[in-house]
Design a protein that fits this description.
The complex is a heterotrimer of chains A (246), B (252) and C (640).
Chain A (H helix, E strand, L loop, with lengths): L15 H7 L1 H26 L12 H10 L10 H31 L15 H4 L1 H21 L14 H9 L2 H28 L8 H27 L5
Chain B lengths: L2 E8 L6 E8 L8 H15 L21 E2 L2 E2 L21 E5 L8 E3 L2 E2 L2 H8 L21 H11 L6 H5 L6 H13 L7 H15 L8 H5 L7 H22 L1
Parallel strand pairs in B: 1-5
Antiparallel strand pairs in B: 1-2, 3-4, 3-5, 6-7
Helix pairs in contact in B: 2-6, 3-5, 5-6, 5-8, 6-8
Chain C lengths: L16 H8 L5 H4 L3 E5 L3 H13 L2 E5 L17 E2 L11 H11 L6 H20 L25 E2 L5 H19 L2 E4 L2 E9 L2 E9 L5 E5 L2 E4 L20 H8 L4 E2 L4 E7 L22 E5 L16 E2 L1 H5 L9 H16 L8 E4 L1 H7 L1 H19 L8 E10 L2 E2 L12 E3 L17 H21 L13 H20 L5 H16 L5 H21 L11 H25 L23 H4 L1 E6 L8 E6 L14
Parallel strand pairs in C: 1-2, 1-9, 2-5, 9-17
Antiparallel strand pairs in C: 3-4, 6-7, 7-8, 10-16, 10-18, 11-15, 12-13, 12-14, 14-15, 18-19
Classes of the chains: A mainly alpha (246), B alpha+beta (252), C alpha+beta (640).
Chain lengths: 246, 252, 640
């Protein structure tokens, strides 16, 4: 019998949510739920940004009005920015859990097979997407940090020289007029699509959502979601680069 | 048939191991893969070389003793087939076949192609049973079990414990093995009394020895009994419920 | 005759014997049970169920298996089902009918009292297994389904698809695992028993070899239970698993346990024929296939046309021709002999002319293909995987193969051998199947012995030894046995001959199958008895075992098993030679009716032949236990 690759039951006695998260099955639950939160954000973000395709309202770009409205969400019930920060905090926590769970499961899996097969492997079910989750995830994370520095924080040289807080439309056009940025963006969206191709299917398994009648739809759902997110996001910088939006 | 075998040879867990190449000619296409290994061993012995150690027993695909990686696939290229039922006609004449032991921390190597799978027994000991002392059972027809439930429970119970799921899993996870036993017992009315403690204990002992499931689905394809990963989903669902229910049961 | 063959059959009418006995045996108080250590060798249906049940009662149990896990025992391969006299089908079944069918099926060579108890306990087995979660087949109403099986006119067979043995074994294995987790059972895996230790006429321990480390060690207990299965692998090619062997019971036999009816072996008619000389084992196809398949061969010997091109009138449906009443559904022994006779006439089919057709063409036409699929699809798939032929298109080819051994260690009603303190259960003993075992009865016997009989009867022996510690493992008797084991291992490694273990095993198998297989004759058996010792001499002088004793060495393991087969095979031939009658699986060519049917001779051979070890495998001593039939009157079996 092998040496244990994780802690024993006795070492795990803790309040049940903690104990649950300490187990790999629990971490997969957390990854699925945080993944859902993140993907909901991605879709919301994407749909919001499609406003760049809308005409100006009274000379102000529609997307700038939308951005302002986000900052004023739930005002006057809450002060300005508060609702947005609650959402952002939730999102950050989701990211942290998603990344931490992925990291510790990866370590566990490496411990579970310290010596790899010496001959070549032939995979039948495991696909490119499922085997590269951690790489597609890391690429997307790297892009995300760049993207925040570029458009949210305006840090040079990631952000365009003309960057100005609140000028969403102008910043948007400025940054995506740079071909390398668009390229990075496209690469990241493809990575995200690949990540979702497996992730959106996998989460049903992790959450134990399983019904013989609907199981065959899970893969189609994942394909549709991956395609929507990749294409839906990629058209925006491409539209800028090729001059449809200026 | 003439084939070239590239077989992992290793004298013991702490000894260095490596591939050795053997040319085997005059193989019949009707032979099973293990009979081909028998023929190789017979020749090795006649040459004065120690035969290749490999686990095997019933040779009809039910005991679960056999199992090696054949060209990077657990139990070889034929789906739903244990190594003992794989026949040489599935290979090309002149092929080079790579044979490796299962590799996982939970399955330490003993010799050549033989590994120690007793971690599976530890998982069963953690709760893979229904507590019923001999003699205390009620009449068998006292509890009807709907036929679809009994059939699904059987699909899970068909597991032969060979370890191919762990071997094939890119993460070295034993979720299919564990889920199959949990589902078999959790589906049946007889298994309800211990459902939640069983699930919690078996999952946690499993995780002491094996990796985590990331839903590749490779185990299902490697399984000689083609057990579905749907059972893993059932286990995942039951595990969260077990965490809640066990606390509630204790509180009472 | 020097063995004490007191079967200890309880008094009273047959229905009451077991109840009377349970009341009369000595009991061990629950608090005292933990003071008794019981060593169980083997973890199949009998061993695992006995170990779990004894541990539940409170005994201190240790289990030894040479497999890597208790779940791998060969009970797992049983396909068809398990009989029980539940009469859920309302078709007139009863404990007495199951008892009657089993005694008759065994051709009146089994012990009535034991068989009645078996039939009685069959009811409890189904309850126990169902409660354990064994997924038996069910009807749409949710209740258990039954099917009919060879040799019975009622449907009493409970089944779990074609994997009944697997599911029952996993039930017993899981019950055992619960006790292991509980600390009540200590389980030794990859440990093989190589000798029994006797002190002052009682079994006091065993000597084992750890197959991974090579470590030889002594284990001591108050009682030893052998649950090590049958010895069909003496034929080399059989339906048994590769590792099945006689060594445990043969070593016990050498230490004084009588070996009963070694020549009673069962040949199963429907197995896939050997495809080449490297064939390592034969695969059984369930007997149920004969319900719909028709068996035939070309009428003209040497007719090599493909089956589809042979017109109906040029085919010989020989079972239907010879046995018009039962046709293709004659019992196993009758079918096997008929097939052998036909193949010996040169009418065999297939590339090696070593099989007969089992044809589903007519059934598919009659019933539609999907009906046949529902009944047999998993078997058809298995057949196709092995032979690469699709039974829906071309007929299956089948040939009989050694399958089960009714003979084994002699045991009394308590399942104790002639050595006090040494028990044999399951296929390892001889008691319940006489000269022929009916289908779906092996699982029943293994579980009855393990769950319900041994846990009741073992206390009767143990009670005597209350507060006596087991013999210490450093006692000289242990040293002696252990030295014998070590010497033997060294001898195999030191021979450094030129022939491999498998070569000898195959040669021995050929002799046994030819002369002591499906049909036996005096000249043939005498020939075998002269060839086997010669081959055995060669084995001792020219064996090649490579590697060392200090680690995993699978050839070394096999060498000991094959050597024991060499000794056993002589006892089998001697027993077959001396039993001058044909009964059940034992067919002597000299004793047949004019139309080739078995001639049983109740006047001379209505007894159990119990062989006693004398030190010379060619000269064992015969002992007799007469069989008396009070509840069932012996009659001639007829299937015409």
């Amino acid at each position: 019998m092998g040496s244990p690759v994780s802690t024993t039951i006795e070492q795990r006695r803790a309040p049940w949510p903690v104990a649950f998260y300490r187990s790999a099955v629990g971490k997969k639950w957390v990854m699925a739920i945080t993944g859902i939160a993140i993907i909901l954000f991605v879709i919301f973000h994407m749909v919001g940004n499609w406003k760049i395709f809308l005409p100006d309202v009274d000379g102000i770009p529609d997307i700038d009005i939308y951005a302002e409205a986000l900052r004023e969400l739930l005002v006057p019930f809450l002060p300005e920015h508060v609702a947005l920060w609650i959402l952002r905090t939730g999102l950050i926590v989701a990211f942290l859990f998603h990344i931490h769970a992925a990291y510790s499961l990866t370590l566990m899996n490496h411990r579970a097979r310290p010596e790899d097969y010496q001959g070549p492997r032939t995979y039948i079910a495991a696909n490119y997407a499922s085997r590269t989750m951690r790489w597609s995830g890391v690429i997307f994370l790297a892009f995300l940090l760049f993207h925040l520095a570029d458009l949210t924080w305006g840090i040079q040289p990631m952000a365009p020289e003309t960057w100005a807080r609140g000028e969403v439309y102008a910043n948007f056009v400025a940054t995506f007029s740079r071909a390398p940025v668009v390229f990075f963006y496209i690469v990241a969206m493809v990575a995200l699509g690949i990540h979702l191709y497996h992730g959106a299917w996998s989460m049903f398994q992790s959450l134990g959502i399983n019904h013989p009648r609907f199981n065959h739809l899970r893969r189609w759902f994942a394909i549709a979601l991956a395609a929507l997110v990749t294409v839906g996001n990629a058209i925006m910088p491409l539209a800028v680069l090729f001059g449809f939006v200026e | 048939m003439n084939i070239t075998l590239q077989i992992w040879r290793q004298d013991g867990p702490d000894r260095p191991g490596g591939f050795k190449v053997y040319e085997v000619d005059g193989i019949s296409a009707e032979m099973s893969f293990l009979e081909m290994l028998d023929a190789l061993n017979e020749r090795l012995a006649n040459q004065g070389d120690e035969p290749v150690a490999f686990d095997h027993d019933c040779r009809e695909g039910i005991c679960g003793a056999c199992g090696v990686m054949i060209d990077g696939q657990a139990h070889g290229p034929q789906l739903g087939t244990a190594t003992c039922q794989l026949h040489m006609r599935k290979f090309e004449n002149g092929a080079t076949i790579t044979v490796e032991p299962w590799r996982a921390a939970g399955f330490p190597l003993i010799k050549d192609l033989v590994v120690d799978r007793s971690a599976f027994d530890r998982i069963i000991e953690a709760g893979g049973y229904i507590t019923v002392d001999t003699g205390s059972a009620p009449d068998a027809n006292l509890t009807p079990v709907p036929k679809p439930v009994a059939d699904t429970a059987f699909d899970a119970a068909a597991c032969i414990g060979c370890g191919a799921c762990v071997a094939a899993c890119p993460n070295g996870a034993a979720n299919l093995f564990t889920a199959a036993k949990i589902s078999h017992l959790n589906l049946l009315p007889q298994g309800q009394a211990e459902r939640w403690t069983r699930t919690e204990n078996m999952v946690e002992v499993m995780e002491e020895y094996f990796g985590s499931c990331t839903n590749h689905g490779e185990c299902e394809k490697a399984c000689p009994k083609s057990i579905s990963i749907d059972f893993i989903a059932m286990m995942n669902s039951d595990y969260l419920r077990a965490k809640l229910k066990n606390r509630r049961l204790v509180a009472q | 005759m020097t063995l004490q063959l007191d079967a200890r059959i309880p008094a009273g009418p047959i229905e009451d014997k077991w109840e009377n006995h349970k009341f009369s045996v000595r009991l061990v108080n629950p608090a005292n049970k933990r003071k008794f250590k019981i060593l169980i060798v083997g973890s199949g249906l009998a061993g695992a169920s006995a170990a779990a049940s004894l541990a539940e009662l409170g005994y201190d149990v240790e289990v030894f298996t040479f497999h890597d896990s208790a779940r791998r025992a060969h009970s797992i391969a049983a396909q068809g089902g398990i009989n029980a006299a539940k009469n859920y089908k309302n078709d007139g079944d009863s404990v007495f009918r199951l008892f009657y069918d089993t005694v008759k099926g065994g051709d009146y060579r089994s012990r009535e009292a034991n068989v009645y108890r078996l039939a009685h306990e069959s009811l409890n087995i189904i309850d126990q297994a169902t409660a354990q979660g064994v997924p038996f087949a069910r009807e749409y109403g949710g209740l258990l389904d039954n099917r009919s099986f060879g040799g019975a006119q009622v449907a009493r067979t409970f089944y779990a698809r074609g994997q009944t043995g697997q599911q029952l074994l996993l039930g017993a294995y899981q019950a055992l695992a619960r006790q292991v987790a509980d600390g009540s059972v200590k389980l030794h895996t990859r440990v093989e028993m190589l000798d029994v230790v006797i002190k002052e006429g009682r079994a006091v321990g065993i000597v084992t070899r750890d197959l991974v480390s090579g470590q030889v060690s002594n284990h001591s207990g108050h009682a030893i239970v052998l649950a090590t299965g049958g010895y069909s692998n003496v034929f080399f090619l059989s339906t048994n698993a590769m590792a099945c062997n006689v060594s445990a019971i043969w070593r016990a036999h050498r230490k004084g346990a009588g070996f009963a009816n070694p020549c009673f072996t069962q040949i199963h008619p429907t197995c896939i024929p050997a495809s080449d000389e490297f064939q390592s084992k034969l695969t059984l196809m369930s007997e149920s296939l004969r319900n719909d398949g028709r068996i035939w061969v070309p009428a003209r010997p040497g007719d090599d046309r493909p089956s589809g091109q042979i017109p109906k009138e040029e085919r010989d449906y020989f079972l239907e021709r010879m046995y018009p009443a039962f046709g293709n559904l004659v019992p196993r022994d009758v079918a096997s002999r008929a097939v052998k006779r036909i193949v010996d006439e040169g009418k065999g089919v297939g590339p090696l002319h070593n099989g007969v057709y089992l044809d589903f063409h007519d059934a598919i036409e009659r019933e539609r293909r999907n009906v046949i699929e529902e009944r047999y699809d998993n078997l058809f798939e298995m057949y196709e995987r092995i032979t690469d032929e699709d039974p829906y298109e071309v007929p299956m080819r089948i040939y009989p193969a050694p399958h089960y051994t009714m003979g084994g260690l002699w045991v009394d009603y308590n399942l104790m051998t002639t050595v006090p303190g040494l028990y044999a259960i399951g296929e390892a003993n001889f008691s319940d199947h006489g000269a022929n075992r009916l289908g779906a009865s092996a699982l029943m016997q293994g579980l009855a012995d393990g769950y319900f009989v041994l846990p009741m009867t073992i206390g009767d022996y143990l009670a005597e030894f209350l507060n006596q510690a087991p013999v210490p493992t450093d006692d000289p008797v242990f040293d002696e046995a252990r030295a014998g084991v070590e010497d033997r291992v060294e001898r195999f490694l030191a021979t450094r001959g030129s022939r491999t273990v498998d070569w000898f095993h195959k040669e021995l198998g050929k002799i046994m199958l030819e002369y002591c297989g499906m049909s036996r004759s005096e000249p043939g058996l005498n020939k075998a008895l002269s060839e086997i010792p010669a081959l055995y001499e060669e084995f001792r002088a020219d064996l090649r075992v490579l590697g060392t004793a200090g680690g995993l060495n699978q050839t070394l393991e096999r060498a000991g098993r094959v050597e024991d087969f060499f000794e056993l095979s002589q006892a089998m031939c001697l027993d077959a030679l001396r039993r001058e009658e044909s009964c059940g699986g034992h067919f002597r060519e000299e004793f047949q009716s004019d139309d080739g049917e078995a001639l049983r001779r109740d006047d001379e051979f209505s007894h159990v032949s119990v062989w006693e070890w004398t030190g010379d495998p060619g000269q064992p001593q015969l002992n007799i236990e007469p069989l008396t039939f009070e509840a069932v009157k012996p009659s001639t079996r007829s299937y015409k």
